[in-house]
Design a protein that fits this description.
Elements lengths: L16 H22 L19 H11 L3 H13 L7 H14 L3 H14 L6 H14 L3 H14 L3 H17 L3 H13 L3 H17 L2 H10 L6 H14 L3 H14 L6 H16 L3 E7 L6 H21 L5 E7 L7 H12 L3 E3 L7 H11 L3 E3 L14 E3 L4 H15 L4 E7 L2 H16 L3 E8 L7 H12 L4 E5 L15 E5 L4 E3 L4 H13 L6 E3 L8 H4 L8 E4 L8 H14 L5 H18 L5 H10 L11 E2 L5 E2 L3 E6 L2 E4 L2
Parallel strand pairs: 1-2, 1-3, 3-4, 4-5, 6-7, 6-10, 10-11, 11-12
Antiparallel strand pairs: 8-9, 12-15, 13-14, 15-16
Helix pairs in contact: 1-8, 2-3, 2-4, 3-4, 4-5, 4-6, 5-6, 6-7, 6-8, 7-8, 8-9, 9-10, 11-12, 12-13, 13-14, 15-24, 16-17, 18-19, 24-25
């Protein structure tokens, strides 16, 4: 039998490398086994009777033996000499396939492609055509081009009637998806193979499924669980998540995952062991000296934002455990939508029975009044990380907000413009949304507080692409006060000057800067049209500008523009850098603003516990009086309105990137 070809030189994902190697070996062994069967020996044998296919010439059999003996260089030389004799067409397909195998074995993939493509193009009806396509796909993958391999494999799997070839194509397809880190698609391919396999082969495929799951990180396991919510291997992904949470002492996450598993798979054979894990997680959770509760809509339409907040909370608790010099703090996670009937009963049960020292939540401002009343009744601080409602203290003495409010953004960008840059006159262009209207109103209020002047304000409908009417209106208002419009002659080609009728008015703005609290998708269009209308002034914005692609794709007219946000993952601040690094290890992605807000909400509560707060009442007193609370942006404190006032990040667009203004 021919030996398998050496493992291709592919930069496989490190966590999946061993799995991929096993799959490749099995695929190549099967491929060469079927290749051998395709090339008949002279006269046949008892187990391999003669066919109508002409027997192989001695030269081709010699080349096969050289490859079998691990000498592909000599095999290639023999085959090239054979080709030089202009052999009969009956032998060319076998020759091309053998040359492809020899050069593949030599890792000369370019030459392997050359002969495998000749086989593919010249002999589409050959008995070895499908084997050639498999080796062609394997060669593309070995060259790091799985996207070229996958269409070939899909064609083989669709057209072949040979179960062995189909099985090998399936394994190679799964390997290509693993190489692309598309693990869910790889799993789907392996599951497809199980449906058509023998019991032994299905067991082998299940082994490969398990090997993939064993190497996935949490995000990968969560994606598998979501992709197969009520079937195999979603159950295995959930079980691995439970084991991982328990191993890392994250009992709140383990408890949540266990309850999900028991609900989703009520008849699973592992349920008895899972219930034991639930008892363990619950007992360990209750053994903590203090509990923080997170009540967030983790599985609803706000789930992505809520889960980001939860990740931030967990990072804060993880940091506290690493410091190891304070009381133990556990986390109770309740997946609750405040819109659901019976939510307040669940909150009352939580506060009365579990007695957390603080509750983090909700996300929406409209849910604050009822929850604040409940927190007041049980004397438990309620910290909302996201709700932007101003002056939350009017709803109750136990309500606090660590959210990035419109007021905070307006205060910071106005202070930068007036106090730090010396700007005095402003125009405002904003979308007709709550976000745009409120930020425009608050910015104007702050400018006037600094004795600055708002020249004009115009609005547009979100989604508009033509802002000429609004820009013209701003210019008209400015020209009534401070703006200038002077006629200038426009030079024609050839050095001649235009006639009087061709003179144009050159507009010079009388204001210092323009505030545009818009989405990032609007600001590029607006900036370009402002430049067209001769408005060349600094642009100011809010956190709606902060999207990954804005700085790269916006018009050059935004160069130098400045906006404010509550978080900047590329900040040089050592505290931020440590936070981002720890989050990346968990999620393989930069943290969002919601992760940062959840982190800050948990940190101020943890800081109170570390400074001796032992009850909701004493924690509230600490939060109200402490002037140096830790946040990612720097020391902060709660104002009398219940809002956490902390430094914000000033960001500037420079050469297609955001940079922090120190």
């Amino acid at each position: 039998m021919w030996p398998h070809l050496p493992h291709p030189n592919i930069a496989s994902p490190p966590n999946i490398a061993s799995t991929l190697r096993r799959m490749v070996r099995r695929a190549i062994v099967g491929l060469l086994a079927t290749l051998l069967l395709t090339l008949p020996e002279v006269g046949g044998t008892a187990n391999n009777p003669p066919s109508n296919t002409p027997p192989l010439p001695t030269t081709l059999r010699q080349a096969k033996q050289l490859i079998d003996q691990g000498d592909p260089d000599a095999a290639a030389t023999v085959l090239q000499q054979f080709l030089a004799t202009s052999p009969r067409t009956d032998y060319l397909d076998d020759t091309y396939l053998l040359l492809g195998a020899a050069y593949y074995d030599m890792k000369n993939f370019a030459e392997a492609l050359k002969y495998l493509n000749l086989l593919h193009q010249q002999f589409p009806e050959s008995e070895v055509h499908e084997r050639g396509q498999l080796l062609l796909a394997r060669t593309h993958a070995a060259m790091g081009n799985p996207d070229l391999a996958l269409p070939l494999l899909a064609h083989v799997r669709t057209m072949t009637q040979d179960p062995d070839i189909k099985r090998e194509a399936l394994k190679l397809t799964a390997g290509a998806f693993i190489h692309k880190k598309e693990f869910v698609r790889a799993l789907r391919v392996l599951l497809e193979g199980m449906e058509e396999s023998s019991e032994l082969e299905a067991a082998n495929l299940r082994e490969q499924v398990h090997a993939i799951l064993d190497q996935l990180d949490r995000r990968g396991l969560q994606r598998v669980r979501q992709s197969f919510p009520r079937s195999y291997p979603g159950d295995l992904a959930s079980l691995r998540l439970i084991d991982d949470y328990l191993a890392h002492g994250e009992d709140h996450l383990a408890e949540r995952e266990i309850r999900h598993f028991l609900t989703t798979f009520p008849d699973h054979p592992r349920n008895a062991a899972v219930r034991e894990s639930l008892a363990l997680a619950t007992s360990r959770l209750r053994a903590n000296q203090y509990l923080i509760a997170a009540m967030l809509p983790l599985s609803g339409k706000l789930g992505p934002f809520a889960n980001d907040v939860l990740e931030g909370i967990h990072l804060a608790l993880e940091q506290a455990r690493m410091q190891g010099d304070g009381p133990t703090i556990g986390l109770l996670v309740k997946d609750h939508d405040a819109e659901r009937h019976g939510f307040l009963d669940d909150l009352s049960t939580l506060l009365n029975q579990d007695r957390p020292i603080a509750v983090i939540g909700p996300l929406l401002s409209k849910n604050l009044p009822a929850m604040a009343e409940m927190a007041q009744r049980y004397h438990v601080p309620l910290v909302t990380p996201v709700a932007t409602l101003p002056n939350v203290r009017r709803l109750g003495g136990y309500l606090f907000s660590t959210a990035l409010t419109y007021q905070m953004q307006a205060e910071r960008i106005a202070a930068y413009a007036v106090k730090e840059q010396g700007y005095r006159r402003f125009c405002i262009l904003h979308p007709e949304t709550i976000y745009g209207r409120e930020l425009a109103r608050l910015f104007a209020q702050e400018v006037r507080r600094y004795e600055g002047e708002i020249i004009a304000v115009r609005s547009y409908k979100e989604g508009d692409t033509d802002f000429s009417r609004q820009i013209t209106g701003l210019k008209e208002e400015d020209l009534k006060k401070y703006g200038l419009a002077l006629p200038v002659e426009v030079p024609q080609s050839g050095g001649k000057t235009a006639g009087r009728n061709d003179k144009r008015l050159l507009y010079t703005p009388g204001f210092d800067a323009m505030f545009i609290p818009s989405r990032s998708s609007d600001i590029g269009l607006i900036a370009a049209q402002l430049a067209y209308h001769d408005i060349h002034v600094p642009l100011l914005g809010a956190n709606g500008w902060n999207t990954p692609d804005f700085a790269r794709t916006a018009d050059r007219a935004v160069e130098g523009a400045v906006f404010v946000d509550g978080f900047f993952p590329d900040s040089p601040n050592p505290i931020v850098k440590d936070f981002v690094e720890r989050y990346r290890k968990r999620a393989q992605a930069p943290p969002s603003l919601f992760v940062a807000l959840g982190y800050d909400a948990a940190r101020v509560v943890i800081e109170g516990i570390r400074h001796g707060a032992t009850s909701g009442e004493s924690l509230r007193e600490f939060l109200v009086t402490q002037r140096n609370l830790p946040t990612l942006a720097g020391p902060a404190s709660f104002a009398p309105d219940g809002i956490l006032h902390r430094p914000l990040f000033l960001l500037q667009v420079k050469q297609g990137k955001f940079v922090q203004i120190e």
